[in-house]
Design goal:
Layout: H1 6-36, E1 39-47, E2 50-59, E3 66-71, E4 77-82, E5 85-90, H2 93-102, E6 122-132, E7 135-144, E8 151-156, E9 163-169, E10 175-185, E11 201-206, E12 223-224, E13 231-239, E14 247-254, E15 259-265, E16 276-281, E17 284-291, E18 294-300, H3 304-313, E19 315-316
Length: 321
């Protein structure tokens, strides 16, 4: 039997830990650049056989970031960000609904604010180099440990760490959604007028005070039976449009990359219950199932079959006081 010296084992372990730390540092830089890097560019959004074009301008740092994305085709829409506040603008109510839907995935900021939990469920792979919008970039793949989840591919500009192209792949390897810069300058527009909305109808998507991370007071015992890597981030009672002012229990789950909202409410009559899945927009799907006297509806960037399996496997316990 071959004996491996203890020092070799320790050195190998240290090397693995250092590589994991390097991966996390890289993802933090990519996440920060996705939200903070000053830029002026045009990008394409491809999904469900459709193609949309947007112009994106951004300037500032931290709470002083100003950003505006404007649709260049389809219904006129603007999404304006000021610090942590995000607002949709449109010409009319129908276009405003289209704005809300397109704002579910705001390229290039598709990574969560806190990337430290990604390693629970994904492995980072460096898979080659490419060229996007006349700039060199490095492909980084976030491959799921559970093969039933999406893979995220990012081609990252090496000096700023800004993703120039991002692709969501299905478990079979098919492209579900793709964002690509076609033109980009890595400097923001300084004229304040470039960040002002021009369309009359508006809807506040997120206030500056809205929580983004995990609630430290939350009890993980509130929900059990989740797939490996998932945990509960937040739990609250909300009143949703069309619910007759009745509060709905809203759970936010994450596996480190996926963000999933689960809404818990009383079910309809027995003869009106129907389990269903559907696509909302690009990689965003929804699923509805039932558990005892509860209707469960999940919405998020997760394949439909995996989402339905999550609803059927999870078990809700009494909310901790």
């Amino acid at each position: 039997m071959r004996v491996v010296p203890l020092i070799g084992v320790l050195m190998f372990g240290a090397a693995c830990a250092a590589h994991a730390e390097d991966d996390m540092q890289l993802l933090r830089k990519v996440g920060n650049a996705s939200r903070q890097q000053a830029l002026d560019g045009t990008y394409l959004h491809q999904m469900n056989g459709m193609l949309e074009t947007f112009r994106l301008v951004r300037q500032g740092q931290g709470d002083n970031v100003r950003e505006k994305r404007t649709s260049l085709d389809g219904p006129p829409r603007e999404v304006v960000r000021s610090g942590g506040e995000l607002t949709c603008y449109a010409q009319d109510k129908r276009a405003l609904m289209a704005c809300k839907i397109s704002a579910m995935r705001l390229f290039p900021a598709l990574l969560p604010d806190d990337v430290d939990d990604i390693a629970r469920s994904y492995v980072l792979k460096r898979t080659g180099t490419d060229r996007v919008a006349q700039r060199d970039c490095q492909w980084l793949d976030l491959q799921p440990r559970d093969p039933q989840r999406y893979t995220m591919r990012m081609c990252v500009e090496p000096t700023t760490y800004l993703p120039l192209k991002m692709i969501t792949l299905s478990p079979r390897g098919d492209s579900v959604e793709q964002f690509t810069f076609t033109e980009i300058e890595l400097a923001g527009v300084k004229d304040k007028r470039a960040y002002r909305a021009k369309l009359p109808q508006k809807f506040l998507l997120r206030s500056a005070k809205a929580p983004t991370g995990a609630d430290p007071s939350i009890s993980q015992n509130e929900i059990t039976g989740l797939p490996q890597g998932f945990r509960l981030l937040r739990s609250a009672e909300r009143v949703l449009p069309g619910t007759g002012a009745k509060p709905v229990r809203h759970l936010v789950l994450s596996d480190g990359l996926v963000m999933l909202s689960v809404f818990v409410e009383p079910p309809p009559p027995e003869n009106a219950r129907m389990e269903r899945v559907g696509n909302l927009h690009g990689a965003i799907n929804m699923a509805t199932s039932y558990q005892g006297d509860m209707q469960l509806t999940a919405v998020g960037d997760m394949p439909q079959t995996a989402m339905m399996a999550l609803l059927k496997g999870m078990h809700l316990n009494a909310k901790s006081e």
